[in-house]
Amino acid sequence: MSGIYDVAILGSGPGGLQAAIHSSRKKARVLMLGRIDNSSLYWAHVENYCCQVKISGEEVLRTGREQAENFGTEFRDEDVLTIEPDGSLFSIKLESGDVVKSKTVILATGSSRNKLKVPGEKELLGKGVSYCVDCDAGFYRDEIVAVAGCRSAAAGGAVALTNFASEVHLYCEELDVAEGLRKQLIDTGVHVHEGVKIEEILGETAVTGVKLDDGSTMDVSGVFIELGAKGVLELTAMLGVQLDENMKYIEADKKQRTSVPGVYAAGDICGPPLQMAKAVGEGCVAGIEAATYAKKMEVE
After folding, report:
1. Tally of CA atoms within 13 A in the half-sphere of 274 that contains its CB
2. How many CB atoms lie within 10 A of CB 127?
3. For residue 241, what is the DSSP state?
4. Which residue in 256, 259, 270, 275 is deepest, having the highest Cβ count within 10 Å?
5. Could you give the CA distance from residue 144 to residue 162 in angstroms, rounded to a whole number?
6. What's the mean pLDDT when you consider all of the chain?
7. Model confidence over 185-242: pLDDT tens digits?
8. Facing residues of 201 across strands?
9. Which residues contact 157 (CB under 8 A, 6 or more apart)?
10. What top-level branch of life does the organism fall under (predicted)?
């Protein structure tokens, strides 16, 4: 898997898979990143998609992956930790610690931010509760913070927070990350509490602590909830991609181009309706356009 890819696709849902199929068919070298069960479709059943009466989301995704593989798409079942411009390319760091480079990027990670669903979470949002380490880490210099989550976004976020906070505590039922990222947690001094969950976020006008399911409490100034892969806020913060006026979805034109040349977006990350039919259509366009852009770079 060495060398430079033409198209790197972040997200393993229907939009990303359709993009992979179309860009691979245009003879582009395509890498798809992400875990299939991160897609919200994986746990759903589909009844309103043209020509399908009823089918499980898992079956849709597995079939789509087989199609993309048959056309030459390469897959890595890893989440992305960071992504940044690198000259005319994009440099993408994976949870294993590996770095891959691509001429173009398609963002197809979906839009939802999983909630912890505990008392105090909603009330203290923006007052110490955050869903974006890359956006808000700088507000917690020399403070003690907590991170909730078991996967790469939580672990990677906890590592990043050590550059700002005096102490970082990661709470999770069971850590599920690559060994390279697990080692980073240890090396950077993150306090990992496996088998311990946050059951309440404490504070009146700002976060003052967390109550844990073992009955103890911990004084913290911030709580970062990272229950999945990197979401729209983190990815756009890294790349400088323009969001809509509500800072919730990526703005993309009819060719699925974002405000950053070489970066495309498809699916729920571009806004409602949050439907598979829309994601597939946008993925088709994004895949064709990204492959065309990458091939044009070769000529130039």
Report:
1. 13
2. 15
3. P
4. 256
5. 10
6. 92
7. 999 999 999 999 999 999 999 999 999 999 999 999 999 998 866 677 778 888 999 9
8. 210
9. 133, 134, 147, 149, 224, 226
10. Bacteria
Whether the full predicted model's pTM is greater than 0.70, yes or no, is yes
Rounded to a whole number of angstroms, the CA Rg of the chain reads 19
Name residue 243's amino acid. L
- CATH 3.50.50.60 domain locations along the chain: 4-112+231-299, 129-225
CATH fold, domain 129-225, is FAD/NAD(P)-binding domain (3.50.50)
Q: Which two tokens stand for residue 247?
A: 């800072």
DSSP calls for 252-284: --TT-B-SSTTEEE-GGGG-SS--HHHHHHHHH
Q: Which residues contact 291 (CB under 8 A, 6 or more apart)?
A: 6, 7, 22, 23, 26, 27, 28, 30, 104
